């Protein structure tokens, strides 16, 4: 349910890093808590800068609207445009097809501040 090879933020965001390129999405827990996702707004475009702990968009479900908070800083290299047409992909596959952003990290050392899978599970109670 929570891949071991990812890093996590207690705001229910996961991150996968390959060198200085990071992929960002929401966790399965977040997707389940939200319920059916009906709208996704990812604000930054390719080339835009995002900063740690700042919003990069919002996600709306039949239950609520939640802000998406960046776990790292960097330059957006790719946005998953397919989610705009079909946001339910996030419900069905949050860790593969449901990724949201790819970012060139400003500082790879920021990854050290994120949780491993066991630390993330502890935040769930």
In short:
With 125 residues, this protein is α+β, with helices and mostly antiparallel strands. It contains 4 helices and 9 strands. It is globular.
Overall description:
This protein has 125 residues and is of the alpha+beta class. The chain has a single domain (7-107), classed as OB fold (Dihydrolipoamide Acetyltransferase, E2P) (Beta Barrel), CATH 2.40.50. The protein has 4 helices and 9 strands, in the order βββαβββββααβα. The protein has helices at residues 28-34, 82-85, 89-92, 117-123; strands spanning 7-9, 13-18, 21-26, 37-42, 49-50, 55-61, 65-69, 74-79, 101-105. The strands form 2 sheets. Strands 1-2-3-9-8-5 form a 6-stranded antiparallel sheet. It has a 3-stranded antiparallel sheet with strand order 4-6-7, with no helix packed on it. The mean pLDDT is 96.
Topology:
Layout: E1 7-9, E2 13-18, E3 21-26, H1 28-34, E4 37-42, E5 49-50, E6 55-61, E7 65-69, E8 74-79, H2 82-85, H3 89-92, E9 101-105, H4 117-123
Antiparallel strand pairs: 1-2, 2-3, 3-9, 4-6, 5-8, 6-7, 8-9
List descriptors.
125 residues; alpha+beta; OB fold (Dihydrolipoamide Acetyltransferase, E2P); 6-stranded antiparallel beta sheet; 3-stranded antiparallel beta sheet; 4 helices; 9 strands; 37% strand
Q: Give the SSE order as H and E letters.
A: EEEHEEEEEHHEH
For the report, how would you describe the main beta sheet?
6 strands, antiparallel
Number of helices: 4
Oligomer: single chain
Q: Structural class per helix/strand content?
A: alpha+beta
**Low-confidence parts:** none
Order of the strands making up the biggest sheet: 1-2-3-9-8-5
CATH superfamily: RNA polymerase II/Efflux pump adaptor protein, barrel-sandwich hybrid domain
User: Could you name the CATH topology?
Assistant: OB fold (Dihydrolipoamide Acetyltransferase, E2P)
Fraction of residues in H or I helices? 10-25%
Determine and state the CATH class.
Mainly Beta
Q: Give the termini separation.
A: 15 Å
User: Overall mean pLDDT score?
Assistant: 96
**What is the domain tally?**
1
Counting DSSP E segments of at least 2 residues, the number of strands comes to 9
Q: Per the principal axes of the C-alpha atoms, what is the gross shape?
A: globular
Q: Which second-level CATH architecture applies?
A: Beta Barrel
Strand content is 35-45%
What is the CA-based Rg, rounded?
A: 13 Å
């Amino acid at each position: 349910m929570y891949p071991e090879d990812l890093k996590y933020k207690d705001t229910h965001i996961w991150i996968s890093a390959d060198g200085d390129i990071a992929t960002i999405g929401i966790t399965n827990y977040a997707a389940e808590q939200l319920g059916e996702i009906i709208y996704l707004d990812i604000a930054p475009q390719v080339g835009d800068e995002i900063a740690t702990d700042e919003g990069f968009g919002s996600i709306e479900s039949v239950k609520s609207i939640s802000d998406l908070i960046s776990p790292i800083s960097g330059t957006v290299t790719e946005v998953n445009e397919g989610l705009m047409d079909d946001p339910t992909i996030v419900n069905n596959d949050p860790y593969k097809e449901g990724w949201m952003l790819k970012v060139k990290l400003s500082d790879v050392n920021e990854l050290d501040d994120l949780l491993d899978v066991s630390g993330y599970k502890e935040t769930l109670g």
